[in-house]
Amino acid sequence: MNNDVLAETLAVIEADPHSAAALILYALINTFDYEKAGCLFKLNKLRDLGPEHRRLAYDLMELMVAGGNQGEAWDKAKTRMDERVRAG
């Protein structure tokens, strides 16, 4: 699941890094860096996602719960997402 959900999320972000779906998923991913603060994310933003992207958001949350928001695969995917979103 780890690589699948990361690959799917990365594909969404790379396809259109400034779309609503990409930015919401990216924001969710970034909250995972702040576990001590509770990974705060405005859940009402999930309303702005279609069913396919909401499924990705739920899968990303499951990935975080399982500790998949760390390690080489996570770091590589996160770095690529950072690059794409910040490329302007």
Summarize this entry quickly:
The protein is mainly α. It contains four helices and no strands.
Report Rg: 12 Å
* Relative strand content: under 5%
- How many domains is the backbone divided into? 1
SS field, number of helical segments:
4
| Topology, number of strands | 0
> What number is the mean pLDDT?
91
- How can the largest sheet be summarized? none
Q: Report the principal-axis shape.
A: globular
Run of helices and strands: HHHH
Give the assembly state of these chains.
Answer: single chain
Helix residue percentage: 55-70%
Classification by helices and strands: mainly alpha
Instruction: Catalogue the unreliable spans.
Output: none
C-alpha end-to-end distance: 30 Å
Summarize the SSE layout with pairings.
Layout: H1 2-15, H2 20-31, H3 51-65, H4 72-86
Describe this structure as you would to a colleague.
- The protein has 88 residues and is an all-alpha fold.
- The chain has one domain (2-86).
- 64% of the residues lie in helices and 0% in strands.
- The radius of gyration is 12 Å and the shape is globular.
- The model has no long low-confidence stretch (mean pLDDT 91).
Spell out the key features of this protein.
88 residues; globular; 64% helix; mainly alpha
